[in-house]
C-alpha cells in the first residue's frame, strides 16, 4: 500500500527500472538475451512494477505490445503515459493516490481494470472501454450512487467491485446497482443471485403500489419538491435575475414555502383517504342493495305482463280482437311506465349518495378551502408582486448615477441587458407568472377531473325503451303458430 512508503523516496519509471522488471520476468535461459543492449522490448507482453514507490507513469512507450501491466502499491497520482499501450488487456492501478479517472481513452482492448483503494470521487471518462469485463473501484471516495449509471454503456461489464465507498452504506445500494446494471454477474465478489433480482422487482412493485395509492388518494407528486420543480424548471428569465441580492433571497425562501404547502396537502389527502374509502364502501353497499331490489321488482313486473298477454302473442292477427289489441298496447304503456318509475327511484337514490362523498376536492368543503389552487396561487401571486417590486426598485437605482456604478459591477452582462428595457423585463416576468398560474390550474383541474360519474341510469333507460319497443313490434306483428300434426 502506498501509505507503507511514507519514508521512501518516490520514483519515476525509467529505463533501468523497466529493464530490471523485464529481467526478473524472463526465464533463466533467456536472461542473457534480455540483458543484451539491443534486446527487443517490443516482445515484452507483461510487466510488473508493484511496490516501486512510483510517483509518475512514464517511459513505457517502447513496450507497445504490453497486454498486462501491474502498477499497484505505488504513489501514482495521475493516470498518464499509457497512450501507446493500445494492446493492454489487464491493468492494475490499485493502492495508489489517483483522484481522477483519465488517460484511458486509447485502451480500447482493456478487459480488466483495477483502481481499488485510491482517492477517486467520480466515475467518468470510461466510454471507450467497451471491452471491459472486470472493473474494481472499491475503497475510493465515491459518494453519489447515481454515478454508477454511466457504467450501463459498458455492455460487456460482468464483474464490478464497489465495496468500501461511502455510497455503499445507502439503503438499497445493491438493488440500485443491479437495477441499473442488469448484465452484472458478480457485484462486490458476490454472485448476483436470482433472489436479488426478485428483491429488486419487489422494490419496484412497492414503488408502483405507492404511486397507485397516492393516485387513489389524489395526492400523486405532491410530496417533496416535484410540483415546484415542474413549475419553475424552465423559468430562465427569473433564474438570471437571481444575481440581484434581494431576488436571490426571495428565490431561496420561496421554494420552501411552496413545498410546505404541497406536503401539507399530501399529508391531508392521505388522512382523508380512509374517510373517503369508508363513505365509498357504504355507497357501493347500498348501490348493490338497490340494484338487487330493482332487478327483482323488474322481473316481477315483466313476468306479470307476460302472463296477462301471453295469448295475444300466440294468436294470429285475425284472431285478436281490436279491443284486445288496444288493451295490449295499454299494458305495454303501463309496463313502460312502471319500469321507468322504478328506474327513476333507483337513479334518484344513487345520485344523492355520491354528493355526500368527498371523492374530489371542491370549493364547498374543507379540502377545497386548503386546495392546491387556492394556496399555491396565493403564494405565486405574492412572490410575483415582491419580485416586481425588487426589479422596479433596482431599475430606478440604475437610473441614479450614485448607485449605477456599484450595481453594474455586481451584475452579469445578460442581467444588465434585461434591466435596460423596462417593458422587456416586465413582460418576461409577467409571462413566466402566467405560465406558472396555468400549470397550477392544470394540476387542480387534473385533481378534479375524475369526479364520480354514474352512467348506469342512461344505459338502463335505453334498455327499457328497447324492450318496450320490441314488445310493441311483436304486438303489431304477432307470430303465427303452425298447427300441430
TrEMBL record:
Q: Which Pfam families match?
A: LRR_9
Chief localisation class:
cytoplasm
Lineage: superkingdom: Eukaryota
One GO CC term of this entry? cilium
Q: Where in the cell is it found?
A: Cytoplasm, Cytoskeleton, Flagellum axoneme
- Record keywords, A-Z: Cell projection, Cilium, Coiled coil, Cytoplasm, Cytoskeleton, Flagellum, Leucine-rich repeat, Repeat
- Which segment of the chain is annotated as a signal peptide? none
Which InterPro entries does this entry report, sorted A to Z?
Answer: Cilia_flagella_integrity, Leu-rich_rpt, LRR_dom_sf
Recorded family membership:
Belongs to the DRC3 family.
Q: Per its record, how is this protein called by name?
A: Dynein regulatory complex subunit 3
- What species is given as this protein's source? Cyanoderma ruficeps
Amino acid at each position: 500500500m502506498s501509505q507503507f512508503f511514507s519514508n521512501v523516496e518516490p520514483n519515476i519509471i525509467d529505463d533501468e527500472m523497466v529493464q530490471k522488471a523485464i529481467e526478473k520476468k524472463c526465464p533463466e535461459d533467456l536472461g542473457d538475451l534480455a540483458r543484451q543492449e539491443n534486446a527487443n522490448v517490443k516482445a515484452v507482453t507483461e510487466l510488473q512494477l508493484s511496490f516501486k514507490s512510483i510517483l509518475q507513469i512514464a517511459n513505457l512507450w517502447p513496450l507497445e505490445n504490453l497486454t498486462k501491466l501491474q502498477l499497484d502499491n505505488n504513489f501514482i497520482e495521475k493516470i498518464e503515459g499509457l497512450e501507446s499501450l493500445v494492446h493492454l488487456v489487464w491493468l492494475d492501478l490499485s493502492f495508489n493516490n489517483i483522484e481522477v479517472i483519465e488517460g484511458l481513452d486509447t485502451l480500447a482492448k482493456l478487459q480488466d481494470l483495477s483502481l481499488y483503494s485510491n482517492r477517486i470521487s467520480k466515475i467518468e471518462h470510461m466510454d471507450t472501454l467497451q471491452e471491459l469485463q472486470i472493473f474494481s473501484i472499491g475503497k475510493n471516495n465515491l459518494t453519489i450512487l447515481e454515478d454508477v449509471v454511466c457504467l450501463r454503456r459498458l455492455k460487456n461489464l460482468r464483474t464490478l467491485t464497489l465495496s468500501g465507498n461511502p455510497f455503499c452504506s445507502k439503503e438499497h445500494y445493491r438493488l440500485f446497482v443491479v437495477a441499473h446494471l442488469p448484465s452484472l454477474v458478480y457485484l462486490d465478489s458476490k454472485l448476483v443471485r436470482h433472489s436479488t433480482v426478485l428483491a429488486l422487482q419487489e422494490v419496484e412493485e412497492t414503488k408502483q403500489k405507492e404511486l397507485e395509492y397516492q393516485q387513489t388518494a389524489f395526492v400523486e407528486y405532491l410530496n417533496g419538491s416535484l410540483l415546484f420543480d415542474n413549475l419553475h424548471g424552465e423559468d430562465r428569465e427569473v433564474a438570471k435575475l437571481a444575481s440581484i441580492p434581494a431576488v436571490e433571497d426571495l428565490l431561496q425562501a420561496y421554494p420552501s414555502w411552496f413545498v410546505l404547502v404541497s406536503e401539507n396537502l399530501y399529508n391531508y389527502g392521505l388522512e382523508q383517504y380512509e374517510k373517503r374509502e369508508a363513505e365509498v364502501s357504504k355507497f357501493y353497499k347500498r348501490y348493490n342493495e338497490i340494484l338487487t331490489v330493482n332487478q327483482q321488482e323488474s322481473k316481477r313486473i315483466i313476468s306479470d305482463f307476460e302472463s296477462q298477454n301471453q295469448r295475444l302473442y300466440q294468436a294470429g292477427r285475425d284472431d285478436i280482437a281490436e279491443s284486445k289489441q288496444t288493451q295490449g298496447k295499454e299494458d305495454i304503456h303501463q309496463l313502460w311506465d312502471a319500469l321507468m318509475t322504478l328506474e327513476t327511484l333507483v337513479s334518484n337514490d344513487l345520485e344523492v349518495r355520491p354528493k355526500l362523498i368527498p371523492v374530489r376536492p371542491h370549493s364547498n368543503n374543507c379540502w377545497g378551502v386548503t386546495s392546491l389552487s387556492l394556496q399555491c396561487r396565493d403564494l405565486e401571486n405574492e412572490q410575483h408582486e415582491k419580485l416586481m417590486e425588487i426589479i422596479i426598485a433596482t431599475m430606478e437605482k440604475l437610473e441614479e448615477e450614485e448607485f449605477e456604478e456599484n450595481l453594474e459591477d455586481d451584475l452579469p452582462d445578460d442581467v444588465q441587458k434585461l434591466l435596460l428595457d423596462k417593458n422587456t423585463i416586465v413582460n418576461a416576468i409577467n409571462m413566466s407568472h402566467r405560465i406558472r398560474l396555468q400549470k397550477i390550474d392544470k394540476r387542480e383541474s387534473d385533481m378534479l377531473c375524475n369526479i364520480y360519474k354514474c352512467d348506469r341510469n342512461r344505459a338502463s333507460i335505453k334498455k327499457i325503451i328497447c324492450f318496450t319497443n320490441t314488445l310493441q313490434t311483436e304486438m303489431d306483428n304477432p307470430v303465427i303458430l303452425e298447427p300441430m300434426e
